[in-house]
Amino acid sequence: MVEVEIEQEKENKLMHRRELVLSADHEGEGTPSRKDLADKIASLVNASKNEIVIDKVDSEYGREKSMVHVRVYDDEEYVKEFERDYFQKRN
Questions:
Q1: Are 16 and 38 in contact (CB under 8 A)?
Q2: Is 40 buried (19+), middle (13-18) or exposed (0-12) by CB count in 10 A?
Q3: CA-to-CA distance for 50 and 48, rounded, in angstroms?
């Protein structure tokens, strides 16, 4: 089971979003999928999965912990306005 914890949080009012760096502890498992991470992050920050964009997941070889860079928008419309198309499709 993946445990997610917020390491850094920055408010970006101009872009109507919060920029987060999270640590995901996935002991005994491989790197979690973006879908699994989105589910965990949505419940952690009280947001819809459609408002969350996972920028990248950094996992070091042999470690059971990953750093996840995430943008959480105030509304789904801002995701469509500010994010590139391939980020929208990937998330």
A1: no
A2: middle
A3: 5
Integer angstrom CA distances of residue 76 from 4, 60, 63, 72, 79 = 23, 32, 34, 9, 5
Q: Where are the alpha helices (DSSP H) in the chain?
A: 34-45, 76-82, 85-90
The radius of gyration of the chain from alpha carbons, rounded to an integer in Å, stands at: 13
Sequence-distant (6+) residues with CB within 8 A of 41 are 4, 20, 22, 47, 52, 54, 68, 70, 72
pLDDT exceeds cutoff 90 at 9:
yes
pTM equals 0.89
